[in-house]
Structure formats: structure tokens, C-alpha cells
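Q: Please design a sequence for this.
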């Protein structure tokens, strides 16, 4: 394992009051899932399924109109 930094930041937040995890990849793509394994597979599968700034239509947005 290398000790050199890659500059890649992966972030996973839990949405309080739900079972939903919201992830942001180092490329800026976002994804939500209830299964932590699914979330990490998506994160580590970069760039497959990643479009910077893209959000799935059924993803919770945290606000209501």
C-alpha cells in the first residue's frame, strides 16, 4: 500500500430519519442507496456510472417544493 496521497475524496453521508446513504465521488457525481455495499461498489467503480453533477431522478433532494 502506498502512503502517497491520491487527492481523491469520497464522501458518504447518512440522511437522518431515513435508511438512505448519499455519496459524492471525487469526480462530483452523486448517488443515493440504502445498501452500504451498493454505495461502496458505486464509489469504487469510478468512472462507470458516474457523470459529474448528475443526480438520479428518484434520488431524495432534501427539500420539498
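A: Design:
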Amino acid at each position: 500500500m502506498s502512503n502517497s496521497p491520491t487527492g481523491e475524496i469520497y464522501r458518504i453521508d447518512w440522511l437522518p430519519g431515513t435508511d438512505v446513504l448519499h455519496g459524492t465521488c471525487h469526480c462530483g457525481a452523486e448517488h443515493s442507496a440504502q445498501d452500504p455495499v451498493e454505495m461502496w461498489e458505486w464509489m469504487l467503480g469510478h468512472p462507470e456510472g458516474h457523470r459529474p453533477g448528475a443526480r438520479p431522478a428518484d434520488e431524495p433532494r432534501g427539500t420539498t417544493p
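Q: Thanks. Anything notable?
A: The beta strands are 11-14, 21-24, 30-33. The radius of gyration is 13 Å.
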